[in-house]
C-alpha cells in the first residue's frame, strides 16, 4: 500500500485532480481506511507542497492546483467518515478590517491556510469588531486573523481586541494580524498573539499557536 | 541648396510596444468587457448618473454600452495643465508624449536620512521629502512620499497636504481618506489660488482615486470621481492590477481588464459633467507568485506601462504612469537597475504624469537618497529622448575638414557652442578619475546622495506661502482635528 500512498501524494503535489480522484476511488474500493487515505496520501502530499512553497520551489497557482486536487480526493472520502470528524488543523476566522478594501492578501492567507488543512471562515472586507465577535460566537475558531493595509484602518484591530476582552472571549481565541503597514512591534503594542509578513509564514504561525 | 524630397527624420527616438491595430483590438475588447461583464458600482449617486447616461443597471452591477464609452472619450479634454502653486505658471502640460516625473504618495515607512533606519513616516518626513523634490530640477510634481502617522490618523490627510504645500510650489497629486478629506483639501487649494474659479483655471493639484480590481468601483472611488467632476478639478484614476491575481496572467488580458476599469471610471466622471479633466492611470504589474508582492520593478511592469502609454496616445487621454521605483528593500544595485530601466522606458514611451519615483520595498517605503539618485537618471533619460539632430550644422563637415586628420576639436567655437547642449551632465553620477574620487572620500553614489539630501533639508528654502494664507490653511487643519475629538 505504501507505493499507492506515494503515488497519491505525488498526484496531489503535481496538482492532478483527476488522477487523485481516480486513486482515491481505487483505494476506497479496495477497502482502505479513509483516515489513512487522508493522512498518508492527501495531507502528506499537501505537506510537501507547503514546504516547497515556503522555500520558493513552488508558486502560488501550483499550490492552489494541489489544494484543488486534494479537495477532489477529500470529497470522495468525506461521506465515508461516519461518526468521525474530518481531520482539520484548526479553524481560522479571517477578515479585512473596517474601512479597508484591500483583500487579495487576506484571501491568499486564507487559501494557503486551507491548503495546509485549516478550516477557514472568510468574513470578506470591511469587517468591524462586531463582525469578528459574532463570527467567534458562531464558529468558535482557534484563531482570528485581521488584515489591514492602511494606517487609518489598522486601529480597528485594537478595537476588536478590546471588544473581545470586554466580552470575556480574549483568552478563548488567538489573534493574529498582518498587512503592509503592520509590524511585529505594532502587533505587540495592541496585544495580538502574532504577526506574519506573508501567507506562508501565516500558516506556520497558526500551526504554532494551535500546537 | 539641393531640393531634398522624401526625407524622413526621427526628431526623437521611436519606441512603441503596441501597433495602432493592436491598440484598437484591446480597446474594443475593453468595450466588450464593459458591455458583457460590466462593473460593480458601490455608490448610489454614481449609479443614478450612469443610468441617466444610458447604462444598464442590475442592482449594483452596471453594464456600459460602447456608445456611452465613446461619448465619454469625445467629451473628455485631451490635455490637462498643472501649475506652480505660487506663481500660477503653467509648467506641466499633460498632453501628447510629454513625460513628467514625480514621487509617489502614502508609504507607511521611510528611510531616515540621518540614521539610515526604516521608520514610520511623519509630518516632518513628508515636509523633508517635499523640500527635496522642490529642489531637484528633474522632478516636476509632488506626491507625499509618506503617510503622516504622528497626528490623529483619521484626519492625517489634511496634515499631509499642509506639509506638502508649505514645502513645495510644484504641482501636487493628492490622496485623501475620503471625500470629506478632499473637500477640506480643495478648500485649502482655493485659498491658495485665490478662489474657486482661479483654481479651476490654473489647477496646481489633482485629486487621486483608484478602482478595485477586478472591475469594481468602491464608494470612496466613485464619489471622488463625481466630486472632481462637480468641482471641475482634474482627477487621476488609477487601477492597480496584478497579473495572475486580480486580472488574467496574460499581458493582453491585463491591459484589457485594466483599461475596462479606467474607461468605466471615465464614464462616471464624464457623465457627471462633460468636459471634466480626467487623467487615466494604471499601475499594471504582476503578483510575484513566490513572495506574493505587487511588483514595482519587474520587466512586465515596464512592458505594461509602455503598452498602456501607447493605448493612452491612441485614445488621446492624458496618462498617469509609474517609474523610478523598486522591489529592493534598501537602495542597492537592484534599486538602481530597476529605476534605470523604468525611467528610460517611460521617457521613451511618453505617459505624461509619472509617479512613484523614490519608492523602494515594492511601494512600502520611500527613500530620499533614491529619489535624488533618480533625479540624475531622469536627466539621462531625457537626454536619450532628445535623440540626434541631423543637419548641415550638426554634421559639421566644414569643421571636420578644417581640423583635419590628427587635429583636435577642443578649442573650436563649434565645440563651445554645442558641448553643453548636446551633452547631459549628471550631478551625482561619478565620472571622476580614480585618484580624485579617492581624494574626495571614496564615496559611493548612495553616500553622495545622502549628503545632498541632508544639504537640501538643512539649507534649501522653498518659496513660502504668504503668512495669512498659511494661517487660513492651519485653521482648516485645526477644524478637522476638532471634529474628530
Ligand atoms: C493593490 C493595492 C491596492 C488595490 C487593492 C485591491 C484589492 N482588492 O486588494 C486598490 C487599488 C484598491 C488600493 C486602494 C487603496 N490603496 Co492600496 N495598495 C495596493 C498595493 C500596491 C499592493 C497591495 C497588495 O495587494 N499586495 C499583494 C498582496 C498579496 O500582498 P499583501 O496585501 O501585503 O498581503 C500579504 C501580507 O501582507 C500578509 N497578510 C495580509 N493580510 C494578512 C492578515 C494576517 C492575519 C496575516 C497573518 C498576514 C497577512 O500575507 C499576504 C499574502 O502573502 C499596496 C502597496 C504595498 N506595498 O502593499 C498599496 C497600499 C497598501 N495602498 C495604499 C493606499 C494609500 C490606498 C488608498 C487609500 C489609495 C487612495 N487614496 O485611494 C486606497 C484605499 C482603499 C481602501 N479603503 O481600502 C497605501 C497604504 C498607505 C497606508 N499605510 O495607509 C499603499 C502602501 C501604497 C502606497 N505606498 O501608497 N490599493
From TrEMBL, chain A:
Occurrences of domain B12-binding N-terminal (ranges): 1-89
KW Glycoprotein (keyword) present: no
Domain B12-binding, residue spans: 89-211
Keywords: Cobalt, Metal-binding, Methyltransferase, Transferase
GO cellular component, one term: cytosol
UniProt cross-references to PROSITE patterns, sorted A to Z: B12_BINDING, B12_BINDING_NTER
Gene3D superfamilies membership: Cobalamin-binding domain, Methionine synthase domain
Family: Belongs to the methylamine corrinoid protein family.
NCBIfam families: pyl_corrinoid
Protein name, entry field: Dimethylamine corrinoid protein
Organism of provenance: Acididesulfobacillus acetoxydans
UniProtKB/TrEMBL annotation, chain B:
One Pfam family, short name: MTTB
A GO term for molecular function: trimethylamine methyltransferase activity
GO biological process: methanogenesis; methylation
Claim: Methyltransferase is one of the keywords in the record: yes
Gene3D superfamilies given in the database record: Trimethylamine methyltransferase-like
Keyword line: Methyltransferase, Transferase
InterPro entries attached to this UniProt entry: MttB-like_sf, MTTB_MeTrfase
The enzyme's E.C. designation: 2.1.1.250
Annotated transmembrane regions: none
Family to which the UniProt record says this protein belongs: Belongs to the trimethylamine methyltransferase family.
Protein name: Trimethylamine methyltransferase MttB
Taxonomic classification: Bacteria, Bacillati, Bacillota, Clostridia, Eubacteriales
Amino acid at each position: 500500500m505504501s507505493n499507492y500512498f506515494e503515488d497519491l501524494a505525488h498526484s496531489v503535489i503535481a496538482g492532478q485532480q483527476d488522477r487523485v480522484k481516480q486513486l482515491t476511488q481505487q483505494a476506497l474500493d479496495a477497502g482502505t481506511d479513509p483516515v489513512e487515505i487522508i493522512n498518508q496520501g492527501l495531507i502528506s502530499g499537501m505537506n510537501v507542497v507547503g514546504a516547497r512553497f515556503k522555500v520558493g520551489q513552488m508558486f502560488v497557482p501550483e499550490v492552489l492546483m494541489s489544494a484543488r486536487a486534494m479537495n477532489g480526493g477529500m470529497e470522495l472520502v468525506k461521506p465515508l467518515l461516519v461518526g468521525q470528524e474530518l481531520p482539520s488543523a484548526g479553524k481560522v476566522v479571517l477578515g479585512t478590517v473596517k474601512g479597508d478594501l484591500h483583500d487579495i492578501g487576506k484571501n491568499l492567507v486564507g487559501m494557503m491556510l486551507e491548503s495546509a488543512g485549516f478550516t477557514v471562515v472568510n468574513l470578506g472586507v470591511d469587517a468591524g469588531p462586531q463582525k469578528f465577535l459574532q463570527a467567534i460566537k458562531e464558529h468558535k475558531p482557534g484563531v482570528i486573523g485581521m488584515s489591514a493595509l492602511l494606517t487609518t484602518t489598522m486601529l480597528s484591530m485594537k478595537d476588536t481586541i478590546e471588544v473581545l476582552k470586554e466580552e470575556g472571549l480574549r483568552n478563548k481565541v488567538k489573534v493574529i494580524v498582518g498587512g503592509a503597514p503592520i509590524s511585529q512591534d505594532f502587533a505587540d503594542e495592541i496585544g495580538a498573539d502574532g504577526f506574519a509578513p506573508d501567507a506562508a509564514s501565516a500558516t506556520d504561525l497558526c500551526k504554532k499557536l494551535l500546537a | 541648396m539641393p531640393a531634398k524630397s522624401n526625407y524622413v527624420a526621427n526628431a526623437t527616438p521611436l519606441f512603441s510596444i503596441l501597433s495602432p491595430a493592436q491598440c484598437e483590438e484591446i480597446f474594443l475588447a475593453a468595450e466588450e468587457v464593459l458591455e458583457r461583464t460590466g462593473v460593480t458600482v458601490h455608490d448610489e449617486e454614481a449609479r443614478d448618473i450612469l443610468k441617466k447616461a444610458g447604462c444598464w443597471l442590475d442592482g449594483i452591477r452596471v453594464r456600459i454600452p460602447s456608445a456611452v464609452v465613446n461619448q465619454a472619450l469625445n467629451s473628455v479634454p485631451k490635455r490637462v495643465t498643472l501649475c506652480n502653486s505660487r506663481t500660477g505658471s503653467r509648467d506641466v502640460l499633460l498632453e501628447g508624449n510629454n513625460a513628467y516625473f514625480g514621487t509617489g504618495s502614502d508609504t507607511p515607512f521611510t528611510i531616515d536620512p540621518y540614521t539610515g533606519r526604516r521608520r514610520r513616516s511623519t509630518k516632518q518626513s513628508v515636509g523633508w521629502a517635499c523640500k527635496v523634490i522642490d529642489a531637484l530640477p528633474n522632478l516636476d510634481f509632488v506626491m507625499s512620499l509618506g503617510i503622516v502617522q504622528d497626528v490623529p490618523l483619521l484626519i492625517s490627510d489634511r496634515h499631509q497636504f499642509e506639509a506638502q504645500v508649505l514645502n513645495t510650489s510644484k504641482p501636487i497629486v493628492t490622496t485623501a481618506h475620503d471625500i470629506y478629506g478632499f473637500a477640506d483639501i480643495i478648500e485649502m487649494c482655493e485659498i491658495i489660488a485665490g478662489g474657486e474659479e482661479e483654481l479651476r483655471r490654473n489647477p496646481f493639484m489633482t485629486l487621486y482615486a483608484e478602482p478595485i480590481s477586478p472591475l469594481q468601483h468602491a464608494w470612496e472611488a466613485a464619489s471622488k470621481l463625481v466630486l472632481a467632476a462637480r468641482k471641475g478639478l482634474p482627477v487621476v484614476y488609477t487601477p492597480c492590477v496584478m497579473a495572475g491575481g486580480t486580472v488574467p496572467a496574460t499581458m493582453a488580458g491585463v491591459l484589457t481588464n485594466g483599461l475596462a476599469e479606467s474607461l468605466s471610471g471615465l464614464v462616471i466622471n464624464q457623465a457627471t459633467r462633460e468636459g471634466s479633466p480626467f487623467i487615466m492611470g494604471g499601475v499594471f504589474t504582476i503578483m510575484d507568485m513566490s513572495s506574493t508582492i505587487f511588483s514595482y520593478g519587474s520587466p512586465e511592469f515596464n512592458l505594461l506601462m509602455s503598452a498602456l502609454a501607447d493605448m493612452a496616445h491612441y485614445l488621446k487621454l492624458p496618462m498617469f504612469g509609474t517609474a523610478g521605483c523598486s522591489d529592493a528593500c534598501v537602495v542597492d544595485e537592484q534599486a538602481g537597475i530597476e529605476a534605470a530601466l523604468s525611467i528610460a522606458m517611460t521617457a521613451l514611451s511618453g505617459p505624461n504624469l509619472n509617479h512613484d519615483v523614490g519608492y523602494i520595498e515594492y511601494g512600502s517605503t520611500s527613500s530620499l537618497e533614491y529619489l535624488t539618485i533618480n533625479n540624475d537618471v531622469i536627466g539621462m533619460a531625457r537626454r536619450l529622448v532628445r535623440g540626434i539632430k541631423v543637419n548641415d550644422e550638426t554634421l559639421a563637415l566644414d569643421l571636420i575638414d578644417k581640423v583635419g586628420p590628427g587635429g583636435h576639436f577642443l578649442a573650436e567655437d563649434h565645440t563651445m557652442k554645442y558641448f553643453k547642449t548636446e551633452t547631459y551632465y549628471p550631478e551625482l553620477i561619478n565620472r571622476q578619475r580614480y585618484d580624485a574620487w579617492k581624494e574626495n572620500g571614496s564615496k559611493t553614489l548612495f553616500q553622495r546622495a545622502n549628503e545632498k539630501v541632508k544639504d537640501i533639508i538643512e539649507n534649501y528654502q522653498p518659496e513660502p506661502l504668504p503668512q495669512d494664507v498659511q494661517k487660513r490653511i492651519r485653521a482648516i487643519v485645526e477644524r478637522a482635528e476638532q471634529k474628530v475629538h
